[in-house]
């Protein structure tokens, strides 16, 4: 394919950037902020950590006493009563002190409805681990909790004391059982606490509201929406899939003089008969009400998009943080319903000379409209330098490498086709390095070592099959032959945990 520069798109011509709710950038820009943080790290941080640890330990002890003599089965069968219930109020006071000790300046707007008025509280946007503090501000409601978290020696007692609805991740019927338990609690005549649910299911940067999971809406009962805001000049709390680590955020938050948080209780939302029959419609309409109150848009991203980002990040695919946005734009342009990209690498016109293509060539290759704003935005994502040209191979690898059913080796095979300049499956050292660095997350030095070991006859090239035969005999590549892609991605909410094999790309 020709790679002559025949046209381009300027930065000014490009439309407004599409929102990516899973990315957060945080840097201390000014010298004043850096000096202040350094001083508070020495003076303020130790005091706050000490006070927080004291109150957490105190809360743990009260929860331990409150759970004394109760079995796990009894916790699931009936709500706490008598003196145990009164301990909840004590723990709430302790929890509020933890937030205050951390410098949180909390403002409450509106009125929290009673359990009778609204059995379920729906809170959004969910953007940080600090959101968990809302349980102390709402009277210690039950939450949705992974069963593994309840076994944690440090916070397990506090979690169990809320009588959460447990999610058993190893149970294939977990989703059904969780929904069933939510319905039972919400419609029960017993004095169960309200249920607090974050329907987005993952952390975002609060730029929009993503798709609400329907679990909270299956009971068809009145729901009170709860809006969460963090109106701070420097956002040190947002914990997304691509951004600062939890430890860095905690450090920066505790070294701020204070951090503002607003909790707004909106009027109770009473579902219509149609919404009671259709939980997804119910969820969509509640999300619209909350988005209007927050003054932000709604975008149909979901937790599966987070898994897509995690997979792309783990393999070191080009422009991994932007691939969610890329997929949305491709969907708008109708590319997900075609096989344009796949046909390009499987045809005789393999990308031999696509390291620099213009915007006009980009639209011709993909057969998308030249003047469509989405086409322009898609090109701009890869034109970071605003040069008017992109490496089309990086685009192809990104969009073809995130298929749900593809293993790492499948993606590597695609990369070998894309970066093969010979057109005959013969990979030069440069071609091979690009392929394995952007699919197996190897660094360049190690990739060259592997190439030399595979190319024992010193031909100056290897094939994909040559590498697979070599890799099958090496322990460092064994996981690519024994585990599925999803099993190799150890992820958690708000964080991406890359693979841990040696000599990976930093």
TrEMBL record:
The keyword Lipid biosynthesis applies. One of its GO terms (molecular function) is calcium ion binding. It is found in: Membrane. The chain crosses the membrane at residues 38-70. Keywords: Acyltransferase, Lipid biosynthesis, Lipid metabolism, Membrane, Phospholipid biosynthesis, Phospholipid metabolism, Transferase, Transmembrane, Transmembrane helix. GO terms for cellular component: endoplasmic reticulum; membrane. Signal peptide: none annotated. Belongs to the 1-acyl-sn-glycerol-3-phosphate acyltransferase family. This is EF-hand domain-containing protein. It comes from Psylliodes chrysocephalus.
